[in-house]
Known about the structure:
Blueprint: H1 6-10, H2 18-32, H3 41-57, H4 60-69, H5 71-74, H6 87-98, H7 101-105, E1 124-130, H8 132-137, E2 139-150, E3 165-166, E4 175-182, E5 185-192, E6 201-202, E7 215-226, E8 235-238, E9 254-260, E10 266-269, E11 272-280, H9 281-286, E12 288-294, E13 297-303, E14 312-315, E15 331-338, H10 345-355, H11 369-377
Parallel strand pairs: 1-9, 11-15
Antiparallel strand pairs: 2-7, 3-6, 4-5, 8-9, 10-11, 12-13, 14-15
Helix pairs in contact: 2-3, 3-6
Amino acid sequence: MAERDYYDVLRVERTASREDIKRAYRKLAMQYHPDRNPEDPDAGEKFREASRAYEILHDPETRARYDQFGHAGVSGIGGAGSGDFDLSDALRAFMRDFGGFEDLFGRSRGRGGRSRGPLKGSDVQTRLKVTLEEVATGVEKTLRVKLLQRCAACSGRGSTTGEPETCPTCQGAGEVRQAQRSIFGQFVSLHVCPRCEGEGKVVTDPCRSCGGEGRVREEKRIKVRIPAGVESGNYLTLRREGNVGPRGGPQGDLLIVIEVEPHEVFERRGDDVLLELGISFPQAALGAEVEVPTLDGAATLGIPAGTQSGNVLRLAGRGIPRLGGGPRGDLLAQVSVWIPTRLSAEERSALERLGESENFVPPKSVKGFWSKVREAFTT
Ligand SMILES: [Zn+2]
Ligand SMILES: [Zn+2]
């Protein structure tokens, strides 16, 4: 795939300053960061592309080479021929210059009063589509989720050799004291250590696989059991199945948000499912047994003689189970009587003869009459 012009990628002029480039990249990176777009694989590619452009253009030396020779002048820089600069390179570049995604959004900073020790990983939200049939029975699904997982190369420590070192700025305390003088005397305030961000440790020889983060983004397959009766917007929380924290920090949670797909035939009404059922004029007049689809196979439905268009016939217990137990809802079949649109000469004369019978003349209409006729069948 041909690489786009790096200035176009960052949407800046060729005369843009370093600050302009940094600002443009930060904006794009925040928009397309994979943590913000877990469902969108295109976002990851856009993030990668913007990061690659930033890598080249924010450094005056590589920028000059790019300006003179184009992509050919910078291939192989930053571990990167055009195809070699991958998403983890991009995440590393971003974290190096912007100090981690979580910081930007003020998330995953929930230190809860603790200012020392490993940071917790962020929660991850993902959507899961299920069909109405699956809702009726419950289902076990395997999801694929891109998650930050422990880096195997360094066992999550972040450093190539041995353990990270005690942070020299805070001596491992994770926080620093700042004394301020005022007319009332001296105040001492505590802040999270800017060097180690509260971990108390720093990596001096970062692992090449994870850039010292101790975690890498990888796809994980996760099996979940979806109970019968769920609705769109319901969610499951899998504790400690989200992103791992940097350098051995505990995992966040994985939130699975259910999305029930619209059905071709059925419409859901709470625990009931509604079906539009076409029947013939003789079936409506004489009564009949017809086969109807349900969420668990075909069933036989009795049409009483004299059924009107709009009548709703009920098949008890063929709807959706209530979430968490309880009786199943019903299948509601709303009848439409099919009036033929083409008639043979023989059919036409038979109908003309029938039309003369007073049984075929609808009753005089009074307000609400037809609704009452329909309701008579709606049980
Ligand atoms: Zn590593
Ligand atoms: Zn520190």
